[in-house]
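Today's session is about reading a structure prediction critically. Students often jump straight to the picture, but the first step is always the sequence itself: look for stretches that repeat, for charged clusters, for runs of hydrophobic residues. Only then move on to the predicted structure, which in these notes is written as discrete structure tokens rather than atom positions. Here is the chain we will use throughout the hour.
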Amino acid sequence: MNANYHTHCTYCDGKDPLSAFVAAAENLHFNQLGFSSHAPVPFENDFGIQEDQIPNYCQEIDNLQTQTNVCLLKALECDFIPGMSTPFQQFKDTYNLDYIIGGVHLVRPQNSEKLWFIDGSKREIYDDGLFQLFNGNIKQAVTTFWEQTFEMLETQHMDIIAHVDKIKMHNQHRFFQEDESWYKILADKALQLIYKHNVVMEINTRGLYKKRCDAFYPSTEILQKARKLDIPVVISTDAHKAEELGWFAAEAEQELQRCGYGNVVHFDKEKGCFR
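Below is the predicted structure for this chain, in token form.
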């Protein structure tokens, strides 16, 4: 692994400053390091960067670039919430970002202002949301997650899609199984849209090293199908601490090889895209 494009620092919910990640990237002999703070969302939260801090975030990355040979890239990880989130392209254009990561962490039930938080360290929040917002109907809840992902892919511009099957993290084989036909149909549709819109898919290692999941995002089956569609991939550690850069990357490389991938893509600074 010689690059990481999914990185969270203290401008959002990361635990280390930008400079610590740059030092870690140098020690790992990275060629590139992309910073992807969680984008602002239109409600109070403790995970996203404040919009008035984005210029400072970008300027600090530019300043650090003068002190390192690692190519530093500016990005945001944007949450898609129907009817609520800012268009991804607006962030990219306003702040002259190199790329955008799109993802779903908060699921909005139809005709509701309340959100189901499927991420974070507390499994009980996932469970409470499932029963309070969906009356425990796991098929409806999971279908809503995937449909929100479909809408994101159809309406937003992103360069990378984050942890595409994140919905499995707190499930841990309790409420649904990933080999159920209805679930596989939904995942397959997401792959078709990723392919249609030329989006890069990450293999994300965070669930494994945080011991919140027993597999990468996405699953082996999804990766195998992605390879058949020739969907490009990157390895992401989704690091929130500098020490997490590179964690489980070697295992991710092995997984990609088993799924038929011979290489990952990298960001071409001159062309402004992954290739």
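Discussion point for the tutorial: The longest strand covers residues 71-79.
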